[in-house]
């Protein structure tokens, strides 16, 4: 599966190299990486606990019904921790190790897999850089297409460390199985057929975005008709050590039309979002500068 058609993104300095040469003084921190507080930043709920969903309870007939309700509540928040997920610890640790080792490689080695003008999303670099004045993340990324396997562009898949490709492939396989299971339980919570959401993800395109945050000394919703949300969040860099995240994205096929499920707008319920082709949705997503989740989703709100 090819990505939605997107315009070229601007090239910006490598953050990891910048962090190694920057002397750490406030006045020398590049202004484009300094984010001032916004009104929403002050809305902090003290002592809030991250929802925890237990897959073993979802799979147990005796506790499944109760845990499905817990899953539904967590999805309305849009962020939760999944425990007893069954993904082997070896798979997780190998992925983390090899991703970390890749970002430790010399810059010229990493640049072999850099984003290209004809493919500005995949590869090593940064995404969503559309203007010379927008704020930038204190991070470098590696973005890869994982599934279906024929969509993989191996130009962007690192050859070092030698086990990288195998580690990512195993991680992708385990995650795809896990997502398929969760979709069934999400459908059950919505009160629709267990296969309903899986139908939207036939072929399940899957991508991964591995993000590397160097130390920074001065670090100080459509198918569910709005019922499920994707919480807006921000990664906080650490003044003393690096940070690594690996986010997997599981998506409908480009040919799929997405909109509020008909079952959820029966009986007089109002559709909160427009129905749109998924390819069009992603084209708009990739052509919008990175400025929080709502800038794209709100574009389709009725």
How would you describe this protein?
This protein has 302 residues and is of the alpha+beta class. Among the domains are: 36 residues, no CATH class; 154 residues, Jelly Rolls (Sandwich). Helix content is 30%, strand content 12%. A four-stranded antiparallel beta sheet has the order 3-4-5-6, with helices on one face. Strands 1-2 form a two-stranded parallel sheet. The chain is globular and about 60 Å long. Keywords: Iron, Metal-binding, Oxidoreductase. One of its GO terms (molecular function) is oxidoreductase activity. InterPro entries: DIOX_N, IPNS-like_FE2OG_OXY, IPNS-like_sf, Plant_2OG-oxidoreductases. Pfam families: 2OG-FeII_Oxy, DIOX_N.
Q: What key attributes describe this structure?
A:
9 helices; 302 residues; 12% strand; globular; four-stranded antiparallel sheet; Jelly Rolls; two-stranded parallel ribbon
SSE topology sketch:
Layout: H1 15-21, E1 52-54, H2 55-59, H3 64-77, E2 81-83, H4 89-103, H5 107-110, E3 123-125, E4 140-147, H6 164-190, H7 196-200, E5 206-213, E6 243-250, E7 257-258, E8 276-277, H8 278-286, H9 294-297
Parallel strand pairs: 1-2
Antiparallel strand pairs: 3-4, 4-5, 5-6, 7-8
Helix pairs in contact: 3-6, 4-6
Specify the overall morphology: globular
Radius of gyration (CA) equals 20 Å
H-E order: HEHHEHHEEHHEEEEHH
Mean pLDDT: 82
How much helix is in the residues? 25-40%
Q: Say what oligomer this is.
A: single chain
The CATH architecture classification of the domain at 88-220 and 235-255 is Sandwich
Briefly note the structural class of the backbone: alpha+beta
| The top level CATH class name of the domain at 88-220 and 235-255 | Mainly Beta
Show unreliable segments.
1-7
CATH superfamily of the domain at 88-220 and 235-255: B-lactam Antibiotic, Isopenicillin N Synthase, Chain
Distance from N terminus to C terminus (CA atoms, Å) equals 29 Å
Main β-sheet, spatial strand arrangement: 3-4-5-6
DSSP E strands, number: 8
Strand residue content:
5-15%
């Amino acid at each position: 599966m090819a990505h939605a058609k997107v315009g070229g993104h601007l090239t910006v300095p490598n953050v990891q190299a910048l962090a190694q040469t920057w002397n750490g003084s406030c006045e020398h921190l590049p202004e484009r990486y300094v984010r001032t507080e916004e009104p929403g930043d002050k809305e902090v709920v003290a002592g809030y606990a991250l929802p925890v969903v237990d897959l073993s309870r979802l799979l147990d007939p005796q506790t499944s019904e109760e845990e499905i309700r817990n899953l539904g509540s967590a999805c309305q928040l849009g962020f939760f921790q999944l425990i007893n997920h069954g993904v082997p610890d070896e798979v997780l640790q190998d992925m983390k190790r090899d991703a970390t080792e890749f970002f430790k490689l010399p810059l010229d080695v990493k640049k072999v897999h850099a984003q290209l003008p004809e493919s500005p999303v995949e590869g090593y670099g940064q995404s969503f850089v559309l203007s010379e004045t927008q704020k930038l993340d204190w991070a470098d990324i590696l973005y890869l297409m994982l599934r279906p396997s024929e969509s993989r562009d191996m130009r962007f898949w690192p050859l070092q460390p030698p086990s990288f490709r195998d580690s990512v492939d195993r991680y992708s396989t385990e995650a795809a199985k896990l997502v398929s299971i969760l979709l069934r339980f999400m459908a059950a919570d919505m009160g629709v057929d267990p296969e309903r959401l899986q139908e939207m993800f036939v072929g399940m395109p899957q991508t991964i975005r591995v993000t590397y945050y160097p130390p920074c000394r001065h670090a100080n919703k459509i198918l569910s008709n709005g019922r499920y949300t994707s919480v807006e969040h921000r990664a906080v860099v650490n003044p003393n050590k690096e940070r690594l995240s690996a986010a997997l994205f599981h998506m409908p096929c480009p040919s799929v039309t997405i909109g509020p499920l008909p079952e959820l707008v029966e009986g007089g319920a109002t559709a909160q979002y427009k129905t749109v082709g998924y390819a069009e949705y992603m084209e708009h997503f990739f052509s919008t500068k990175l400025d929080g989740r709502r800038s794209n989703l709100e574009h389709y709100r009725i």
